[in-house]
TrEMBL record:
UniProt-listed PROSITE patterns: GATASE_TYPE_2 (PS51278)
InterPro entries: GATase_2_dom, Ntn_hydrolases_N
Name recorded for this polypeptide: Glutamine amidotransferase type-2 domain-containing protein
Domain Glutamine amidotransferase type-2: 23-305
Source species: marine metagenome
Length: 305
């Protein structure tokens, strides 16, 4: 009987290898700096695991000289990377940033002039400026009067500054990206010695468009996005997403997205970019940085998703 069944026609449609989904992910860490160009081959080979609507990279342990600062500034300042979809709002965004921070240095990541020659790239990548910033003392003092960490102890200066940066970026994103004004600018990353760049495209497109081939770092993540939860047609929806000091990419979707959104809303945080990745890293940041859970507990808390 089983042999006779082998003659039955197959109802399974032919598999198109190029249409395989599920996100393409690469990540590695090295004791010596590695240039971004060494991710290109792996990302190119995984293009079948994306749809060209969202790609990004993250780098940790950067080279201070390549960014135009000294080592102390790289390690002590927050690296606030802002993507400009509408160049006309830059002065307004920078006024927002200057009111909140002391700006020690600005490093530009301009889009390559021949970005349009990259096959399949349909949307111009946003111009990116990376601001090395420190919270203004007066603003931080005012903020300290209104914040209390979950552990009930007075926050340290670092804990206070971290939360100030997190909330300031949330306000910037709300005003310039998720509000009534439309998608004009948004924060890519804001941690120390951490950089995220992303766009509508593939992860390897990010490296080429921003001419990052020689940019060195000790830790790299690259990602091609395949649609799961939320919008995929805007650069803010691409991976990686950041909490504060961490960047997250993943393969597949988090099944309880709506429940996690409700969980975060009960704790004063509403997602802005409508993706499961965003809420996942926000839970990670909440549990690790604010609640003080050790890493093992954080992973266990995320596992049910």
């Amino acid at each position: 009987v089983t042999r006779s069944r082998e003659e039955l026609p197959s109802a399974r449609p032919p598999v198109d290898g190029a249409a395989e989904g599920g996100c393409g992910v690469i990540g590695f860490a090295s004791t010596v700096p590695v240039a971004a160009r060494h991710m290109l081959q792996s990302l190119e080979q995984m293009r079948n695991r994306g749809n060209g609507k969202g790609g990004g990279i993250a780098a940790v342990g950067l080279d201070s000289e390549q960014l135009g600062v000294d080592r102390g500034t790289l390690e002590q300042d927050y690296l606030l990377a802002v993507a400009y979809l509408d160049a006309s709002v830059r002065k307004e965004v920078e006024l927002f940033v200057k009111n909140a921070y002391e700006i020690d240095h600005v490093h530009e990541f301009p889009v390559s002039e021949d970005w349009g020659s990259i096959e399949g790239l349909e949307v111009r990548p946003p111009d990116v400026a990376a601001y090395f910033v420190r919270p203004r003392a007066g603003m931080l003092a005012t903020f300290a009067e209104s914040v209390e960490l979950p552990h009930g102890l007075p926050p340290t200066e670092r804990e206070l500054a971290d939360e100030y940066v997190f909330q300031t970026s949330f306000r910037l994103n709300t005003h310039f990206y998720a509000g009534d004004r439309g998608t004009q600018a948004f924060v890519l990353s804001h941690g120390r010695n951490l950089l995220v760049l992303k766009m509508v495209g593939y992860g390897d497109d990010v490296i080429r468009c921003y001419q990052l081939e020689n940019l060195s770092a000790h830790v790299w993540i690259g990602h091609h996005r395949y649609p799961t939860k939320g919008k995929v047609w805007h650069p803010g929806g691409a991976h990686p997403f950041v909490g504060l000091n961490e960047a997250l990419v993943h393969n597949g979707d988090f099944a309880n997205y709506e429940a996690v959104c409700d969980y975060l809303a009960q704790r004063g945080l509403k997602p802005l970019f409508q993706t499961d990745t965003e809420v996942s890293v926000q839970v990670f940041d909440l549990h690790h940085r604010l609640y003080g859970y050790p890493l093992e507990w954080v992973i266990e808390s995320l596992a049910p998703t």
